[in-house]
């Protein structure tokens, strides 16, 4: 297997999950890091034994780099992804792929023209519980899906926003809770149900109004393509990071995800199906343990291009972004919004 040389752009909180994964993925090696803060970047590059660039454009000109991991604030994703693809690199971009659907469409067009592949990091799709939910639904023993509800209540204090001032602002984050944290949950909901056709929702800010310009809480009703109805509530202003609570109500029973454990509940009783592993020490529990699996999956495709690709491509990443945008729009207009990814 030829080695693929990787580079990370952005040495902040999430880059640790990428650096850790690159140590473990066969046929991958972290070769360079770009970070606009030269003190942070130099220290990290020294710790990883890799090259340092303060200007990511110079990293893109480095012919030895095959794959670029984008771990920067949302407003930089579009120019960085398109630049990396134009430089002939493969790209693994943190979610959201962009700040809105318009930007994502430009990225998708660039990806369609480029020789390199573009993956977007929706690592929760790789959770054992997520995979099992898809199997249970595809197996059909629970019958038709009638409804789904998700409750995501996390805790983000003022320091989270002041440490990285791009967070919580429309110009740099594109929103807040929905586009950053809850987009994972919306992605899973739409993935389990096979897409969303329309939404009605509201966003608001309570506890975090003094530190963020955008919302800290949101709720929505979703109509899924399969005819089922979804209820969604999320907030960043809870007092702890509670695990996602998700329930899928089907004709013959329910699937329940609570405390990272998946249960099937039907007339015969409640059966434990599978649990998600805890992440490594360096990763926050609420990120889950999926980065390694998602990055391994992408490199497998890069190493074996003839095997059917299995990673979250930009067309998939656009779906949750479209739902996020529709909820923002609905909150402003108080109307149902049709979702067109
Ligand atoms: N998949 C997940 O569960 C998950 C979790 C956390 C964050 N994220 C995503 O990761 C991305 C980064 O988030 P974070 O929490 O690590 O942010 P952060 O603020 O901690 O880190 C961002 C880093 O990018 C650097 N940077 C800014 N401009 C740069 C430039 N022009 N060139 C090089 N470096 C630059 C900053 O100096 C900072 O070190 C976001 O897209 C976020 O949504 C994903």
From TrEMBL:
Example GO molecular function: nucleotide binding
Domain Gfo/Idh/MocA-like oxidoreductase N-terminal: 5-120
Pfam families the record matches: GFO_IDH_MocA (PF01408), GFO_IDH_MocA_C3 (PF22725)
GFO/IDH/MocA-like oxidoreductase domain ranges (all copies): 131-255
InterPro entries reported in the protein's UniProt record: Gfo/Idh/MocA-like_OxRdtase_N, Gfo/Idh/MocA_Oxidoreductase, GFO_IDH_MocA-like_dom, NAD(P)-bd_dom_sf
UniProt cross-references to Gene3D superfamilies, sorted A to Z: Dihydrodipicolinate Reductase, domain 2, NAD(P)-binding Rossmann-like Domain
Name this polypeptide is given: Gfo/Idh/MocA family oxidoreductase
Species this protein is from: Chimaeribacter coloradensis
